[in-house]
Design goal:
Keywords: Metal-binding. With 383 residues, the chain is an alpha/beta fold. The chain folds into 2 domains: 17-107, no CATH class; 115-325. 48% of the residues lie in helices and 9% in strands. Strands 1, 2, 3, 4, 5, 6 and 7 form a 7-stranded mixed β-sheet that branches. Helix 6 crosses helix 7 and helix 7 (85-107) packs across helix 15. The protein is globular. It starts with a helix and ends with a helix.
């Protein structure tokens, strides 16, 4: 091989060739994009305009997926594909727009799913606790999540995006999720100073509200305590709102009855926290501070990521012990906490006792119940 041939082949070494993705190692494709061959090709097929708008459409799609998955700087991604940074950014802009216009509407938004499909996604425990025998109540979970951003030199924007709760700058996409983790819609983004209750009020206010067009009176909204100022408005629209109880003024903890009612909500609401975690786990671009320069398309990226999650992530299913959990819940939801009353009666929480290390061999703990793994799962209701 002469010198000219060596120089011609050198630039090809180490280059990833997504235009011929079939020749690549499947593990490498998944490691870079987070998608399998089949999933990558499905996205490509469901984004047909990308082939017309880009000379290297599969490379453009791969670059965008890698950006979402890793959050790597554009200069580093440009080196990976052996193109300039400006070319990479232009290709990713094209890909983002194509996905937003074609792929995302198939898997996210009010028009991509019907009310009957939402009904079929109700899980056993939420349906038993908050539904009815006719099974005609949609049960949804709402929550806001955070995307942290950089500080801004614009005073007004800095004030709106600074959270006095997190002590950081952030924007809030708002998730509307089915019981099985399927995302119906991502609203927003909203400023850090906008509470969850204010966001929900904006969604349901007005005769032309899409929220009120999709859902019906009697549908169930599972909320957290941040929505307490919106509960009255939600119920006035005919929806059933369920939220964990708050501690009354002058009290230090919930009563046994209120604590049990709160657990009925949290045993259903954990799903939205899992969905929030998927964004930070699968799309590292949302785990780090989002660059202010890229903020104009932050919501597009978040919605595209939500559509990808809906398209390729397995839904959450009923626990195999779900019926056993419900039997235990029904038997104990109105049961008094005898141990708590015993502690109060004998003022045990006001005594000072030196710490003593415990061991299974000590005589005092030999009578402690020994539970199997299945018994522990039932005792903790799967948590």
């Amino acid at each position: 091989m002469d010198m000219m041939q060596i120089l011609k082949t050198m630039p090809q070494e180490g280059r990833v060739d997504f235009e011929n993705i079939e020749t690549m190692d499947p593990n490498e494709v998944y490691f870079l994009t987070g998608r399998s061959f089949e999933q990558f090709n499905r996205m490509f097929v469901e984004t047909p305009s990308l082939s017309r708008r880009s000379k290297r459409p599969k490379t453009a799609l791969a670059a965008y997926l890698i950006k979402l998955r890793t959050g790597e700087p554009n200069t580093r991604l440009a080196d990976m594909f052996h193109i300039s940074r400006t070319t990479l950014e232009r290709e990713m802009t094209t890909t983002r727009d194509c996905i937003k216009e074609e792929f995302t509407p198939l898997h996210l938004g009010w028009d991509h799913i019907t009310r009957e499909q939402v009904l079929r996604r109700n899980l056993f425990i939420p349906q038993t606790l908050f539904g009815n025998q006719e099974q005609n109540k949609c049960i949804i979970i709402l929550d806001g999540t955070y995307v942290y951003i950089q500080k801004s030199s614009n005073f007004l924007f800095q004030r709106l995006t600074y959270s006095h709760h997190k002590f950081l700058n952030l924007l809030k996409p708002f998730l509307i999720v089915c019981c099985d983790g399927y995302i119906i819609e991502v609203a927003g983004p909203y400023s850090a100073t906008t509470s969850d209750a204010s966001i929900l009020n904006k969604l349901i206010d007005g005769a032309d509200s899409v929220f009120n067009w999709f859902f019906q009176e009697g549908d169930v909204l599972i909320l957290d305590r941040g929505f307490r100022d919106a509960v009255q408005n939600v119920e006035s629209c005919g929806y059933d709102a369920h939220m964990p109880k708050s501690v009354s003024r002058g009290e230090t903890q919930l009563t046994t009855a209120d604590a049990n009612k709160s657990r009925l909500v949290t045993i259903c609401r954990w799903v939205v926290e899992v969905v929030n975690g998927r964004f930070k786990r699968d799309f590292k671009i949302f785990r780090q501070d989002y660059f202010n320069r890229a903020l104009p398309h932050m919501q597009d990226d978040f919605r595209n990521a939500a559509a990808i999650t809906n398209a390729f992530h397995d839904p959450i299913t009923d626990n195999v012990n779900a019926s056993g959990f419900m039997e235990r819940i029904n038997n104990r939801v109105n049961m008094e906490n005898c141990l708590a009353q015993y502690v109060i009666d004998y003022n045990l929480n006001g005594r000072r006792i030196p710490f003593q290390s415990m061991s299974a061999e000590l005589p005092d703990v030999r009578g402690f119940p020994r539970l199997s793994e299945e018994e522990l799962v039932m005792f903790a209701l799967g948590t």
